[in-house]
Amino acid sequence: MNVLRTSALVAVAACAVTAQAGAQAKCDINQGSPFQLNSAKIYLNKAQSAGGKPDEKVKHLQNSVKVLTENPEKISNAVGRNWLLGKTLIVWTQQPNVSYVAKRGAVGYAQNPDATVDLLAAADSAFDAVEAAKPECADSVSVYRRQPWSKLVNQSIEALNAGKMDTAEVYARQAMAIYDKGPHAHNTLATIAQQKNDFAGAREHYKKAIEAAGTDTAFTKMRQVSMYNVAVLTQQMSDAAPEAEKAALNKEAAELFQAYLKEVPNDANAQSGLARALGAAGDTAAVAGIYAKMLENPAGYTDIQLFEAGSNAARANQNKDAATLLEAGLKKNPYYRDALFNLANVYFAMEDSDKMAPVVKRLVEVDPNSPENWRLLAGSYQLKQKAAKAGTAAKKAYTDSLLQNLQKSEKMPVRVTVREFTHAGAKHTLGGMVENLGDKPMSNVALKIEFLDATGNVVATQTATVPEVAPKAAQSFRVEAEQAGVVAYRYAPISGS
């Protein structure tokens, strides 16, 4: 399964003065008349002067807001009024220890002084009016919008990196309230939704990030990561969707992967995602074409990329290609549980018992408390029994082994199901469920886990202890290991006693 990606969350620079000057050249707004505007402009200039004291700046800003809002119906120049009001409110947001929501009277509003005002929302409304009347001033307006926006985006990034998701979301939404044309806030909100397992919400924010990024080369990487994530999320939605909706979602996922691959053509994970989507849609010929390069040079791809490709080829019933890809991946990572399981199934479908036997034996060493694995081992003996001559000792021996392993599968007292095996640098997390298949309660179940490197050597160990598991019930476990080089795991069998 392809995993979602995060683009680099980096600080956003404030707008340069040169950008403002270039934008202003094509935007002509009368800020000098009537007299209220001239007064507001003077107050605003004083508030922005470098030598002013903080309390004096506050007083000048209050006076600017007051003259612009005391009798707005008497100000004949609505564009100039909104332009100056928006700029004044933006300067308000830049004051030390400012609260974006304040009493109207404290800001300088003459009407309803005891009510509250959201400075960002009020500035946004004023600037919207300017842009509606003078579309050519949009660039000039964006210079002022981006001043609080850049600060808020950076605050949201800092909070997200610190794991403070609620705070990060507040800052990101405030950033969008004043400036909704940048992809950063949507990218942050998508990441937050992703961490909360709100995949539908993450998908929508990634789509908006793509739209906001547009063709701006400064946002190319963020846009491409968002394109990839939308494709992955759409594919995940197809997995969970009702049967009637799967075809449309797989078609959409394939189109999204194809659009991404036009820009990043050699992304093996995206190629695997595309192959999976096309395979689900029944286009096996297209799947074969996608994996041609990987089959020619498997050494150029990672173990996980080869495992994903092999699994997708198997879903498309291209067992020969699936076996080649999975074999190549296992040369790089020989104890990866899912790849061993998938390759064993591929060999069973190909009725190749000689290749299947060592793979499935390693599988049960890695994951001994999985009834499915022991059924696969029984299946390998079934193939041998089928090929042996009737009445021979070999046929009897294979039949005995088949029945023995099938019985072990059916009478297994404890099932272990691994649902999470993730990596974050040198930190590795393994989690899943311990299920009591018997009729008596189990206590203090110890799951002894070995973390392995690419050569199969044990580089870390952990024990997950499950205090109590009722009959026919399951309890979760989760362990972490701090050790570089971990790529696989295995655990010691649990007897259930």
Topology:
Layout: H1 17-24, H2 35-48, H3 54-69, H4 78-93, E1 101-103, H5 104-107, E2 116-118, H6 119-133, H7 138-161, H8 165-178, H9 184-195, H10 199-213, H11 220-240, H12 243-263, H13 268-280, H14 284-290, H15 292-296, H16 303-315, H17 319-332, H18 337-349, H19 353-366, H20 371-387, H21 393-410, E3 414-424, E4 427-436, E5 442-452, E6 458-469, E7 474-482, E8 488-491
Antiparallel strand pairs: 1-2, 3-4, 4-7, 5-6, 5-8
Helix pairs in contact: 1-7, 2-3, 2-4, 3-4, 4-6, 4-7, 6-7, 7-8, 7-9, 8-9, 9-10, 10-11, 11-12, 12-13, 13-14, 13-16, 16-17, 16-18, 17-18, 18-19, 18-20, 19-20, 20-21
Structure description:
With 497 residues, the chain is of the alpha+beta class. Among the domains are: 19-150, no CATH class; 353-412, no CATH class; 414-491, Immunoglobulin-like (Sandwich). The protein is built from 21 helices and eight strands. A hairpin with a 2-residue loop joins strand 3 and strand 4 (427-436). The longest helix has 24 residues, at 138-161.
Can you summarize this structure?
By secondary structure, this protein is α+β, with helices and mostly antiparallel strands. Helices cover 59% and strands 13% of the residues. Among the domains are: 19-150, no CATH class; 353-412, no CATH class; 414-491, Immunoglobulin-like.
Helix count, per DSSP?
Answer: 21
Q: What oligomeric state is this?
A: single chain
**Mean pLDDT across residues:** 90
Helix-strand sequence: HHHHEHEHHHHHHHHHHHHHHHHEEEEEE
Structural class: alpha+beta
The N- and C-terminal alpha carbons lie at a distance of 35 Å
Which regions have little confidence, pLDDT < 50, spanning 5+ residues? 14-25
Proportion in β-strands: 5-15%
Strand order of the largest sheet: 3-4-7
Determine the fraction of residues in helical runs and give it as a percent range: 55-70%
Radius of gyration: 32 Å
